[in-house]
Amino acid sequence: MSSQFFGLMIGYSGLNAAATAENTVAHNIANKDTDGYSRQQVNTSAADALRVSASYGMAGAGVSIGSISQLRNSFYDIKYRNNESNYQYYETLELYASTIEKYFKDDTSTAGFGTIYSQDFFKALEDLSTNPSSTTTRTTFVGKAAALAEYFNIMYSNLQKSQRDVNYEIKAAVDRINNISEQIANLNKQINVLEISGMNANDLRDRRANLVDELSGYVDVKTTEVPIIDETTGHDTGTYNFIVTVCDGQSLVYGYMYNTLECKERDDAHKVNQTDTDGLYDLYWKNSGNSFKPSGGDLKGSLAALFLERDGNNSENLGGTTRPATATVSGTTATVTIDYSGETTNLDEIISKLNLNDQGTIKLKGSSFFYDGWELEYDDANSKLTINFNNISQDTQNNKITSVAEIIAAGTVKAEIGTSVAYKGIPYYMAQMNQWVRDFARIFNTIEKTGEDLDGNKLCEYDTTTGTYTSNTSFFVWNSRSPDPDKAGQRELIETNKDTATYLDTSTNKITSGDLTSYYNMTAGNLQVNEKIVDDVTKMSTTATDADINKDAADIVKELISIKTDTSKMEFRGSSSTNFLTIVLSDMAFASSSAKTFADNTENMKKSIESQRASVSGVDDEEEALDMIKFQRSYSLSSKMISIMAQIYDRLILETGV
Amino acid sequence: MASRVTNNMITDNAAYNIQLNKRYKDKLSKQQATERKVYDPSDDPVVAIRDLKYTSALADLDQYLNRNLADATSWVDMTETALRTAREVAENIKKEYTSSINGTNTVADRKIYLENKKALCDELYKIGNSASEDRYLFTGYRTGDSLTFTDHDMNIRSKTNGDGNPQYDYMIRETFDKDDVDSYSFLDTQVSSNDISNATTGPVDETGINNVDCYRIRLSYDNLDDTQTRPDSEGVTGYTDKDGTSRTFLVNQIYIAGSSSTYYPVTCVTKDSDITDVSGNQVWLNTETGMLVFGESIKTEIMNSTSVRIDYRKSEWNVGDLKPEHYFDCVDVALKEGQSGGSVLTYNDHEQQMNYAVGDSQTIPVNINANEAFDPQIKRQLDELEDAIKAVDNAEAKVEELKAMLDGGKYTNDTERQNIEYVYNAAKKEQECCYARLNTLIEENTKEASANFDKVNLAATKSGTIQNRITLVSNRLTENITTVTAQASDNINIDLADIIIKLNEASITYSGSLGVIGKITQQTLLNYI
Description:
The structure holds two protein chains of two kinds.
Chain A: H1 6-30, E1 40-46, E2 50-54, E3 57-59, E4 63-70, H2 74-103, H3 113-130, H4 135-195, H5 202-218, E5 221-229, E6 236-246, E7 250-254, E8 257-258, E9 261-265, E10 281-285, H6 302-311, E11 319-322, E12 328-330, E13 333-340, H7 347-353, E14 360-364, E15 367-371, E16 374-379, E17 384-394, H8 404-409, E18 414-417, H9 426-448, E19 460-463, E20 468-472, E21 476-480, E22 489-491, E23 510-512, E24 527-529, H10 531-535, H11 555-562, H12 580-617, H13 621-655
Antiparallel strand pairs in A: 1-4, 2-3, 5-6, 6-7, 7-8, 9-10, 11-13, 11-18, 12-13, 13-17, 14-15, 14-18, 15-17, 16-17, 16-23, 19-20, 21-22, 21-24
Helix pairs in contact in A: 1-13, 2-4, 2-5, 2-6, 2-12, 3-4, 3-11, 4-5, 4-6, 4-9, 7-9
Chain B: H1 7-34, H2 45-99, H3 107-127, E1 131-132, E2 135-136, H4 151-161, E3 170-176, E4 181-187, H5 193-197, E5 211-218, E6 238-240, E7 246-248, E8 253-258, E9 262-269, E10 283-286, E11 291-294, H6 296-303, E12 305-314, E13 329-332, H7 334-338, E14 345-347, E15 355-357, E16 363-365, H8 370-373, H9 376-407, H10 414-492, H11 496-522
Parallel strand pairs in B: 9-10
Antiparallel strand pairs in B: 1-2, 3-12, 3-13, 4-5, 5-11, 6-7, 8-9, 8-12, 10-11, 13-14, 15-16
Helix pairs in contact in B: 1-11, 2-3, 2-10, 3-9, 9-10
């Protein structure tokens, strides 16, 4: 027979269990609205029965509290995190796509490209064609041309600003990621300290899971828990190494250790695109110095989206193969000729599309190098483009030790200038604007230069004997912001097209990075109308024949008007010049609308996964209320039990057999 | 197992759904406020991009209709008004010729006869100087250049060229065809004042005065420079024509183009009586009268040719003369003569057509060129008439003088009287010839005046036709604008009624869901324990 005091202990265990359960209910209710909180429950079991050497066998020993565990299904965590990466990715893309889209807006309320170019500019040009000698129509037209230039200037600086914003956001994201990984590593330690003694560190685990959830919004995340085995005894210690890897297996947190990401500003010599703003960040792992690539492949997360938006050039960077035979090495630097591998049609088109910085990085056989200048040569007969890169030198920020000499010795190798990013991001739209602006300015100038100003002076005259221009007034010029006063200010341009401008210097079919008269220098950001013409509108030409006599001849104006719709004059991506906005806007609108669709879908998915997760881990008012009552009852009962037992002792001790 | 639902899940879901509802209402209210289906292009890229196309099409149509066509209308209106007046003047010239067939009997009659026409001709040319907003209507692209020389032109050139230099000095290339050849006659000799003062010795009799029948081409100008010279001294030996071909000026030659293209020598004279021989291939240029005189063989040559070309120089210009650049290829070297470094002005295009764009590839010609309405020959007819009248006046005066000598009784000697008689007969013959010439000329001019009137009338009709075309195009453009506006509106504009119904539906759903979620969250188990 068991001890008479046994019952008291059983009652006590019940009281204890009920109190613990009630506390857990209180904890649950208190955290009902806490982010990432998982409902906890007390796991009880009947305590080990006592062998009492009686014929009826074992005697129940009350209740024992096994543990307080959380109700959480890690399957939903994985689902949530995968989706969160996608959601933040599309959400970020949508945000920037719709911002850029708004810049390009053109409707009744906002004057955009269509209003300024297709309507105002050509209206003024049509008016000029019916009255070319009047300074009023000329002034109006020059004003509209300046407005067009200004429109592109503003768009360009808006996009540069957006690129800068994205860049800051990358920095902010990286800071947060570093912060999260530090916290996770700390939590790992605290959790293990608690759990090594056999407890569940429920709330700490919730906090850690919450951090990983947040992290999954920035980057692709995978987590694994590896049991820690005591090496001396070979026993499971009951603790785990919690490992976080990001972006396809790059280790971020390993147990108590974590890796930090570092943002390094690109200097001018590292620029990828000509259009890039200064100080773009490249990411490196602080401890190893290796570069960190958050985008590419199927990688998702807002950081990947930010990089796509900031660097996306639709893979339109230059690439080709080296020509070792013509390479010259001197010391650690070399000049290397690259045969362009893409399709080309003529030099003008190449210049219009060129988004190559005058100095930057070039990848040869996968290794990164610098160049500090280039010379681009086009072979019309064979439609071949070659680019000479000057002073290719070792990229000190990159750790791979390969010298230029080694690369050249390796024979013909693959060369890539800049980075190919297969997304239509900010650099892509800037390059599109540049392409249009350069084409337009070149074609407009070429036509203008065949004419004479109102005083009968030719706008452009090339003296073949001396090989110099006796006059050269470009209607559209580029404004150099060079610190060197000799190179600053508005620069006249020289056309290189042989077919359309026979009076020009045709001896050259190459351009170099330092040549200030090349259309390569012109960007949407520095396009301007020549000050000479703005100051004196009679200096523009409206006719090619004796403008001082044929004052109202408008042959040049009519040819200029034909730029509007005649694709043989100007073609932008297979369409007429006015379709610039239609084409670029459809790129943007479709990108933005598909990002929006995916963001909506993943948001829906997020809601549904959150629901599923809440279905398992969420705290429910009624349940807790019921539990509260339930455990109150069992507490009351247990305490009643104890008082009954006390009475039994009273009876036994004080009244029985006394 | 059915999934467990917590209160938080219900409120979260409800909040999310209400959020969706609000987004929808926001979209609807944006659509309602802007009356457009699309707020950002990404709302519906296809519609948005189609809208851009419609907008630019509308802008084009608007430009064509309200700017280009309006400009064209004002230009053509001015032209039509000017030409209507010109037609009246031309008609008056024509009437003057026909109504006064017999108005040339006395010196006074002839004077009036001539002066009237000269006044009308001046007026006609003045109409050619009509301008719209300071732009001359009939001078092609050279809208800053009047049709005739004005005082202003002359003053400016006087200043730039200095004294002693011509204000204008043109080398003109004029081309004719066989229709420009007319029969012509002149007297090989005239009774001179010497003859009359020596009449008693009988220096001339009627056999000495002979009418030479020949042919002539009337150049567009008279008072040409003495010899046909190229302005070689200014380094100008030719010019580049409209097509870019170099042309060299002919010197003392005409060029007859045809099956056998030939150059013929030209001799300059200052009076017809200096012309010695019209039988051969010699061509004479009377620089005073601006007549190209030749005989039968050259005439036959021209009749078989396609065109005749002559280059001549004229440095003497008067206010009211038609400027040659509006009619012929020509070169003005006066500026270069007048000042070192002055330019040579080359005019190689006198039929400049101003076209206004009124559609994507549609243009309307708006201007009438001077040579379509203001023929230089109108004045030249009067020049010739004036010369003929002068000749008649002269001859008449001589006859009168000789008659007076005979009737005066001063000369009684029979031989003297006989001699005076001879001279009188010669003068009489001259008078008859001049009369005959005048009458032929009046007849011809009457015909030509009629042709001139037809020409001006045709030009007026042409500008009327342009006006009609403008009206037609304007109607079509207006119709197009209506169609495109409707299409654009179909594409982008929302149906307000539709939107309001949708907005109402959304509002009902919205307030419904608010009510429901309020009810659901109001009570928990705690209310009952």
